[in-house]
Amino acid sequence: MSTCAECKKKECQKSEVSNLSNCPTKDKDWLKSVKAEYEKEENIKISQLAAHIEKTGYCKWTRIEEIYHFAKQGKMNKIGIAFCVGLSNEARVVSRYFRTKGFDVVSAVCCCGALDKSVAKIAEDDKFNPFEEESMCNPIGQALLFNKLSTDLNVILGLCVGHDSLFMKYAKSLTTVLAVKDRVLGHNPLAAIYQSESYYKKKLFDEDTEWL
Question: What total of structural domains would you count in the chain?
Answer without folding.
Answer: 1
